[in-house]
Design goal:
about 20% strand, binds 2-amino-2-deoxy-6-O-phosphono-alpha-D-glucopyranose, alpha/beta, three-stranded antiparallel sheet
Length: about 240
């Protein structure tokens, strides 16, 4: 894992942009994207740039089950607002939260990714070490699946809803095995509330209790964190 520590999230956004631009320059054409506040600064710089990714495609990690693409808290809507409305890809895919058949949704999404292998995947990090919506305990071999969200994730995401009861209890998410197939991965994490998960991801044992720790096994991962998220690290980076 390459670890890059920056002063603050805005500087991280610049580094994330630089990596996206370099991947594009080097021929990447399928980009895996994440939601959450973390990558927004990177997205802002990408969409404000003159980079040409009009012939590329994007594939998002996850979506809440039960939310229509038009629901303001859906990940479809988030991506429209923070990325695609500003600067579109040729085609963008987000799991269909309204598909009532979880096996069908999983199969379709896996087929899509098999036909369009992800060159460059951007990830955020959950406070409990999750990636995508793969909560602690998820098998490292998992493919796209329906996930029951943990209380910690429901609480963390409740700030976007009127109240905690409106937070969906399930999501569709690429699996950990799916994510690990990406050729290159950038994971960003900012703020002290991510410090423990960052420490466990980089310096802890590789364990399904900390989904992001699997990234230690990937040959091309960059961890981009700010000083606040780095405070529990004991190594030199
Ligand atoms: C959600 C998303 C994750 C994201 C995480 C952290 O659970 N499914 O992909 O990484 O939130 O969100 P934030 O970046 O807002 O801290």
């Amino acid at each position: 894992m390459k670890v890059k520590i920056v002063a603050d999230p805005a500087t991280g956004g610049q580094s994330g942009y630089d990596m996206f631009a370099e991947a594009l320059e080097n021929g990447s054409s399928v980009f895996g994207l994440a939601t959450g506040s973390t990558p927004v600064s990177t997205y802002d710089q990408i969409t404000a740039s003159d980079l040409d990714f009009s012939q590329c495609i994007s594939i998002n990690l996850d979506e809440y089950v039960g939310l229509a693409p038009t629901h303001p808290q859906s990940y479809h809507a988030f991506m429209q607002q923070h990325f695609f409305d500003k600067k579109p890809f040729k085609k963008s895919y987000v799991p269909n939260g309204l598909n009532p058949d979880e096996h069908d949704e999983a199969q379709q999404y896996e087929k899509l990714i098999a036909a369009n292998p992800i060159d460059f995947q951007i990830l955020g990090l959950g406070r409990n070490g999750h990636i995508g919506f793969n909560e602690p305990g998820t098998s490292f071999d998992s493919i796209t699946h329906r996930v029951a969200l943990t209380q910690s994730t429901i609480d963390a995401n409740a700030r976007f809803f009127d109240n905690e009861h409106e937070v969906p209890r399930y999501a569709y998410s690429m699996g950990i095995g799916t994510i690990m197939k990406s050729k290159q991965i950038l994971i960003e994490a900012y703020g002290e509330n991510k410090a423990q998960a960052v420490h466990q991801m980089i310096e802890g044992p590789v364990t399904e209790d900390v989904p992001a720790s699997v990234l230690q096994r990937h040959p091309n991962v960059t961890v981009l964190i700010d000083q606040a998220a780095a405070i529990q690290l004991t190594g030199e980076y």
